[in-house]
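Below is one such protein, fold included:
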Amino acid sequence: MIRVLVVDDHELVRTAVCSLLEDAGGFEVVGSCADGQEAVDAVDPLKPDVVLMDLSMPRMGGLEATRRLVAAHPGLRIVIFTSAVDGRQVREAMAAGAVGHVFKTARADIR
């Protein structure tokens, strides 16, 4: 079972992604956060294997949160989850330590 923390500033997106992951099987959603600061604060107590991280969020964006989480938790896997079509942001996130990315326009069928 892969433990996942979902981070996105839109509540509807967080709820839908959490449901999709839980229904797919093989995933345990251990929590969800509305911004990068919440994610940084939540990783220690929740101990996810993977953080599904949006890039554009208030307070602390996904790029800065990725940098902080990778520095503090080298084994943590961060997958960028974004609607940004600007490849520069995704490249920056990968350089910061993210291991992959999923565009929000992707199909919902993850089985």
